[in-house]
Amino acid sequence: MHMADALLAPAVAATMYVASTSTAGASIFQIRKEDKLLPEPDTRRLPTMAVMSALVFAGQMVNYTIPGTGSSGHLCGGMMLTCLVGPWAAFLSMIAVLAVQCLFFADGGLMALGANAWNMAFYGCFVGYFLIYRPIMRSKLFAKKEKKVADRMKLTMAAILGCVITLQLGAFSVVLETSLSGITDLPFGAFLALMQPIHLAIGLIEGLVTTAVLLFVYEARPEMLKDLQEVSQAKAKTGFGTTILILAIVTVVIGGGVSLLASSNPDGLEWSLFGNAEAGYSANMGLDEEDYGVQSSIAEAAAGVQEKTALLPDYAFAGDEENPLGTTTSGIVGAGMVAALIAVITVVGNLFRRKKATN
Question: Taking the alpha carbons of 317, 323, 325, 330 in that order, is the dihedral positive or negative?
Fold first, then answer.
């Protein structure tokens, strides 16, 4: 669902930057507020954020085919992160993922980064948590069943519903933003009729993937999950460090190996815009991939910046797109960059907090 700059007018892009930046600022404020209430620093947040954000990066590289459509989808990850680190930290983590993708892999436009953060992170982190995940996990659903069974059922329901609903909202936002940008080649109704059903299918699969990860964490270290009621350390089957290590290994395997098996079909947004007529499927909106949308000097300048910063454009070696080593390198290096960025942001934030406390 990564939008290109051509899908946005500069005014709409600027509005989305303001919205996402304001939400990021509110997230930092809320994290600091929550930290003040803790009896001691949360030493587990940083490794959890770093590894899970890296896992989201790696997971987004693996496009899975949507049968019978000529399209594909990939993990979004907002819901998964939120269930483990909370909505505020998850939103900041998603921004880190999207920024690394944009700047170093030219995935999503730089001018569109604010919109992509909103569409791919805001709904999963906040709507998914406050309106779906938390109410379900705190409810008495399945109360007549044994607690572990009830917990698993609630996690499954929350993950699937959360992913489906928040991806629908994100897809709707894409359509709304292009409409407000005045792109007449994308009539609101027709574009909406393509985007919503394909992202319903994508959301269902993401819900299943998210469920699998959450159930693993539940079995290994249930206290890592937010809003899980009556969790005791005695129920943990695996040490925290071991759990994080397992997730890190999974990240490397997915980014460095499984990514090589990713579907070559266009993702849901690209499929809606350009179709997949070459493979015998519909042309959908039938836009020209080389010439579509809004052209602006701001978008051109943003593209120029990306050309200079993109070390591995489109997750491949520049000039050697067919070399599978480029994909493997992108998956491992990108995941490492995301984890490192999360670590740097957290450490710098802690230093500023301590300095302010001593003044």
Answer: positive
CA distance 88 to 82: 8
Q: Which CATH number fits domain 5-286: 2.30.30.100, 1.10.1760.20, 1.10.150.110, 3.40.1390.30?
A: 1.10.1760.20
The pLDDT tens digits of the residues spanning 194-231 come to 999 999 999 999 999 999 999 999 999 999 999 987 77
pLDDT for the residue 37:
87
Return the pLDDT at 57: 98
Question: Which residue matches tokens 């290590």?
Answer: 245
Buried b vs exposed e over 318-346: b needs ≥16 C-beta within 10 Å?
A: eeeeeeeebbbbbbbbbbbbbbebbeebb
Q: Are 209 and 56 in contact (CB under 8 A)?
A: no
In the block, residue with structure tokens 């995935």: 107
What is the average pLDDT value for the chain, to the nearest integer?
94
Cα separation of the two ends of the chain: 45
SS3 249: helix
Q: pLDDT band at residue 319, thresholds of 50, 70 and 90?
A: confident
Helical axes 324-358 vs 45-60, angle rounded to 10°: 150
Structural domain spans, the chain: 5-286, 314-359
Long-range residue pairs from 286-293, CB within 8 A, at least 24 positions apart, any chain: 287/185, 287/186, 292/6, 292/185, 293/4, 293/6, 293/7, 293/8, 293/178, 293/181, 293/183, 293/185
CA distances from 127 to 123, 166, 215 (A): 5, 7, 21
Rounded to an integer, the average pLDDT of 125-151 is: 95
- Alpha helical stretches, state H, the chain: 10-37, 45-60, 78-85, 87-105, 113-117, 134-138, 147-180, 188-220, 240-256, 268-274, 297-309, 324-358
Q: Which one is predicted more confidently, 80 or 1?
A: 80
According to DSSP, the residues that pair with 73 across neighbouring strands are 64
